[in-house]
Amino acid sequence: MTDMRTETVSLSGHGAYRALSLRRQAILLMLTVGLCAAFVGDIATGPARYGLGEVVRTLVAPAEADAQMRVIVWSIRMPSALMAMVVGMALAIGGAQMQTILNNPLASPFTLGISSGASFGAALALAFGVALIPMAGDYIVAANAFVMAMATACLIHLASLRRGASIQTIVLLGIALVFSFNTALAIIQYFAADQAAAAIVFWTMGSLTKATWPKLAITALAVALTLPVFLRRRWQLTALRLGEARAASFGIPVRRLRLETLILVSLLSAIPVAFVGTIGFIGLVGPHIARMMVGEDQRFLLPASALTGALIMSLSSVLAKIAVPGAVLPIGIVTAAIGLPVFLYLILKGGKEIW
Amino acid sequence: MVVLSTDRLGARFGSRQVLRDVTLPPCHGGEVVAVIGPNAAGKSTLFRRIAAILPGPGDCRLEGVHDSDRAVAYMPQDQTGTAVLTVFESVLLARKQVSGWRLAAADLMEVDRALTALEIGDLANEIISELSGGQRQLVGLAQCLVREPQVLLLDEPTSALDMHRQLEAMRRVRNLAQDTGMLVLIALHDLNLALKFADKVAILSGGTLHDFGPAGEVLTPENLAATFRIRARVEPCSQGKPHLIVDDAI
């Protein structure tokens, strides 16, 4: 932020603001280019590795590509590569908005218990075959995870509606929910059969191998439906960061805005977790990196968070495939391995500038 | 010209009645009305009721308003925050709450104008959370002005300013009211500022309106003793201007 300021200080008022906006647009462009490169890299890596040029040619002109490569690129790797991007977008946008409405830098689907709730729901299905939505069929695990994630979000909503409930109350409730669900999960694992316990462990690590076109479509739809709503309310949401009193003084219905945003964010967080399992740190680190690059203005923060989240997920997907030869690591392990040090770095080096 | 009056305005926090039957006589555009009173007298609550931020019984009447959405601007006491926003952005945010969701060149010009009017144009690119308390108060004032209100509610806007800036800020507010026909209600703790700059004074005590009228008529030893629990008097200073002298607490 300091560099940004010294760069523009010589310009006056709105001239400097325009320069700042252009700089932010350039950052968004660079993130988009980086994401495209990571996406191609994600498709190129796997048990059979391809050159980036080959992959691009197959993507641009599939009819001219080798049949085997066409199947691998378009039918096998494309859904998981796209899923990585869309899940990263959804979690990062969700995290950015949670941090905004709760005015807390540690808020994310992961830290508020939504991911833990989903894991608990999934474990019920994997260990005991309990279906929270009858007739869920092959989607029993995802359906259970979704129901529990939304139930957790509803619990947080109800708590926020209580008279005198502060933002700190909500965050502490989220932490209590994380511990409660983790305890319940441990109990389920203890009583579950060995095979089921292993399945639960694998699910909670998150994996893109579960990606399919229908799951991808539903997740993308959640992003496509919620992002325009957030962008429409960008001035109000940004004003929330000035504090509740000042936002209210601008005529913003703070409580209603917070509640409606929390509902949309819950949806945005529950769907990806239901489909790919628990993926931590994206919703926490993605928005922080985006905020360091483009500031709080939601016109830039939202797309920057989405692009940063997608970029981290795509790079994590590549790392998951190349870190251990012959094996694909669960992506949740990789995001945690990348996210935790980045998060610690942010706290220790950049904390004062961010918060 | 805008005219504001209230009729039995009230507010309650849980079981606690914090504002009761406050009926302000008509206050006219171009006037500065100081709202004074001891701590917890209900000054902020009155402003929040007038700004329609708090629900409660009673009516607030506004006549001569051009645009009801932007007629009243309220500057709260609390100017803290951790946002990574520049001063220019934060003032623009206030403007964008009342001027549609697309950013227009006129919005940027208005922000420039507000910052220039308060002589804080040099802070435009500073991060708001890194400013001093006094600078934040000036930014808060700019956030109000940029909305082009007809009624301005300022909740202790000088509490973090040094003496020079207090006088400067009050003079600016005074000129603003006279030049633009804006009605300014300003909560103050410094009674001499009220005496010097306000056309009228409203004294609140225990959530009710104790007295209302021209400063010279309202700031009497009896009123000050009854509401502030101080022994005080107004006497002409060496320049012949009225000055409040506080002798002791009662």
TrEMBL record, chain A:
It is found in: Cell membrane. GO terms for molecular function: transmembrane transporter activity. Keywords: Cell membrane, Membrane, Transmembrane, Transmembrane helix, Transport. It comes from the Bacteria. The keyword tRNA processing does not apply. The chain crosses the membrane at residues 27-52, 72-94, 106-133, 139-158, 170-192, 212-231, 262-285, 300-320, 327-348. GO terms for cellular component: plasma membrane. The keyword Nuclease does not apply. GO terms for biological process: siderophore-iron import into cell. It is a multi-pass membrane protein. Belongs to the binding-protein-dependent transport system permease family. FecCD subfamily. This is Iron complex transport system permease protein. It comes from Mesorhizobium tianshanense.
From TrEMBL, chain B:
GO terms for molecular function: ATP binding; ATP hydrolysis activity. This is Iron complex transport system ATP-binding protein. Keywords: ATP-binding, Ion transport, Nucleotide-binding, Transport, Zinc, Zinc transport. GO terms for biological process: zinc ion transport. InterPro entries: AAA+_ATPase (IPR003593), ABC_transporter-like_ATP-bd (IPR003439), ABC_transporter-like_CS (IPR017871), Metal_Ion_Import_ABC (IPR050153), P-loop_NTPase (IPR027417). Transmembrane segments: none annotated. It comes from Mesorhizobium tianshanense. Gene3D superfamilies: P-loop containing nucleotide triphosphate hydrolases. Belongs to the ABC transporter superfamily. Pfam families: ABC_tran (PF00005). Residues 4-231 form the ABC transporter domain.
